[in-house]
Amino acid sequence: MPETKQRDVQVFPINTDTTVLRSRTWDRLKFEIEYALQRGTTANSYVIRGDKIALFDPPGESFTEVFLAALTARFDPKSIDYVILGHVNPNRGVTLKTLLELAPQITCVCSNPGAITLRSILPDQELNIKVVRGEETLDLGQGHCLEFALTPSPRWPAAMCTYDPQTAILFTDKLFGAHVCGDQVMDEGWTVFNEDRRYYFDCLMAPQARQVEKALDKLEAFPAKLYAPGHGPMVRYGMWDLTNSYQQWSKQQKAQEMTVALLYASAYGNTGTLAQAIARGITKAGVAVECLNCEVAEPEEIRTAVEKADGFIMGSPTLGGHAPTQIQTALGMVLSTATKTKLAGVFGSFGWSGEAIDLIETKFRDAGYQFGFDTIRVKFKPTEVTIQHCEEAGTDFAQALKKAKKARTSRKTVSESQAARTEQAVGRLIGSLCVVTTKQGELSGAMLADWIAQATFAPPGLTIAVAKDRAIESLMHIGDKLVLNILQEGKHLGLMKHFLKPFSPGEDRFAGVATEAAENGSPILTDALAYLECTVDNRMECGDHWLVYVVVNNGQVLSEGVTAVHHRKSGMHY
Fold first, then answer.
1. What does the pLDDT read at residue 136?
2. How far is Cα 175 from Cα 247, in angstroms, rounded to an integer?
3. Distance between CA atoms of 362 and 357, rounded to whole angstroms?
4. Distance between CA 107 and CA 105 in Å, rounded?
5. Could you give the 3-state DSSP secondary structure of residue 426?
6. Total number of domains in the chain
7. Same domain, 466 and 371
8. Do residues 177 and 229 make contact, with C-beta atoms less than 8 angstroms apart?
9. Least packed by Cβ within 10 Å: which of 180, 229, 283, 537?
10. How many CA atoms are closer than 13 Å to the CA of 26, on its beta-carbon side?
């Protein structure tokens, strides 16, 4: 869809007395890592009209005007009895305030953490609040007697799901969503959403897999026939498969051999965004993350997480020149619990000063901890470049943990020796030596690659194997553009050495390299033998790699010569 398309609200009846209002943004959203696929999103609100009327989850302030126009065209705001909030965040404050000014009789239904947040974002608003603690029901009449399940997580401490037995609809809030915008309301042909749903899980749910599993256990009590999530299409046809996938993905995260404790607090959401990006970088490298929001986590929970983890990272905002009290308390527990062999990291956002970040870093350095990445300081709202930097820092942290563990490993066992012999045999395979390059707005990436094979003639297509922990992997999803630069034998060593070296998070991969822009915007290495402009058409998860299938759109030979090839683990070459 064109980026200039206006935001709108799609209204659609989904069951008896039940309507969805899908606030749609067609823009290529980039702010948080979960939007990196840049396919827009929908903010889904729902209305149940029984003897009483309940509105679920009004959208954020960017939709306030267009949403309320669509709502009031179909429902008299003064007839709305309840607003049910699956989670509460400051972004919803403007819409809620405007709605409550039109209809002050409305009762807001939320969990206790949600009620606290609601009062803080609307301090001057007279509020009627019904606090849900897990046992209550809400009878709207005509058979719509709503049941609730509290599903808190570090990112959304106030999260809850709502079930309507009359329609067998489970309103799942953040669970089972996807950031994709379109006209399709239900998930007919649901496999087309697989990549979006997996990416959404990897970004948002994987760092809190323990809490996701608890939520899934609670939701088993509700015989739902339809999931109504906060984002993306309704889940009907692929409901069993998606539920099963959530269970498997959560178990995979918990089964990782190494874990990082990620502790943070977030005053305005910015530090939380950084935490999310760092966590994504860690999990994509095959290390589990235990996220803990210090504002709601119990002290013993923090202590246990740090004690069990192989490394720990702490993030904080700066409020009035200080770290929040909860962070200071958590800092004391970390210093008294974590051994000096654990790897540390520090990050945070601030408006004017940033003393909290300096405090934490100084305490960790004075205590003798080694750092897995340079301390990250972000002023005001993170940009997409900052988000990429944080993701790469998280991956570096995970790789440093793995390297340290490998150095501590004793001599090889018999089975490990056999695995080494197998690697030597597999290493006799050779491949053409190439550099994959891509650029999306302010973001760019590159990697040396030799696991490349032609896959199809019509259309001309290739497969490229990309390790899950590669920084460029986030820029190689379906629809993304890239250039495959084929290196020339005898002229490849300079480019090979350049792209083999480790890059620090956010470092320009193309500094000092001769390039020009391809038609698709990606860099062409002008010293290459040839190049192919490609579009990612499909992806398949294969162990520790993604197998990316690309269609060739254009190409050119730049000089005469033969392709450089890479000999791996052959005895003569590594």
1. 87
2. 12
3. 9
4. 7
5. helix
6. 3
7. no
8. yes
9. 537
10. 12
How far is it, in rounded angstroms, from Cα 63 to Cα 84? 18
Contacts of 457 (CB under 8 A, 6+ apart): none
**C-alpha to C-alpha distance for 45 and 252, rounded to whole angstroms:** 32
The Cα 54–Cα 51 span in angstroms is 10
Tokens 């050779």, located at residue: 430
Helices within 103-207 (DSSP H only)? 112-121, 194-200
Claim to verify: residue 366 and residue 456 sit in the same structural domain: no
Same domain, 498 and 396: no
Largest CA distance in the chain: 80
Q: What is the CATH number of the domain that holds 172?
A: 3.60.15.10
| Contact status, residue 261 vs residue 300, Cβ threshold 8 Å | no
Amino acid at 384: E
Q: Are 82 and 56 within 8 A, CB to CB? A: no
Residue-by-residue DSSP string for 28-82: ---SSGGGTT---EEEEEEEEESSSEEEE----GGGHHHHHHHHHTTS-GGGEEE
In a domain, 2, yes or no: no
- 229-259: pLDDT as tens digits: 999 999 999 999 999 999 999 999 988 999 9
Q: Residue 63: what residue type? A: F
pTM: 0.86
Q: 414 in a domain, yes or no?
A: no
Place of tokens 């009878």: 139
Phi and psi, residue 370, nearest 5°: -85, 150
For the chain, helix (H) and strand (E) counts, in that order, are 13, 28
Question: How many whole angstroms from its chain centre is CA 303?
Answer: 26
Angle between helix 209-219 and helix 239-254 axes, rounded to 10 deg: 140
Token pair of 270 as six digits: 């910015």
Tokens matching residue 132? 């849900």
CB atoms within 10 A of CB 194: 16
- Is-contact 253 283, C-beta < 8 A? yes
Per-residue pLDDT reduced to its tens digit, 101-124: 999 999 999 999 999 999 999 998
- Strand residues in 207-275 grouped as ranges (E): 226-229, 259-264
Report the amino acid identity of residue 187: D
SS3 content of the chain, % helix, strand, coil (to 5): 35, 30, 40
Same domain, 484 and 458: yes
Domain that holds residue 490: 429-566
In this prediction, residue 427 carries a pLDDT of: 66
d(CA 302, CA 291): 10
The whole-angstrom separation of Cα 46 and Cα 56 is 5
Say how far apart CA 64 and CA 8 lie, in whole Å: 11
Q: Decide if 317 contacts 267 (C-beta within 8 A).
A: yes
Q: Which of 501, 498, 550 is nearest to 528 (CA)?
A: 498
Q: Both ends of the chain: CA-CA distance in Å?
A: 46
CATH label of the domain that carries residue 551: 2.30.110.10
Percentage of the chain exceeding pLDDT 90: 79
Tokens of 262: 């990620």
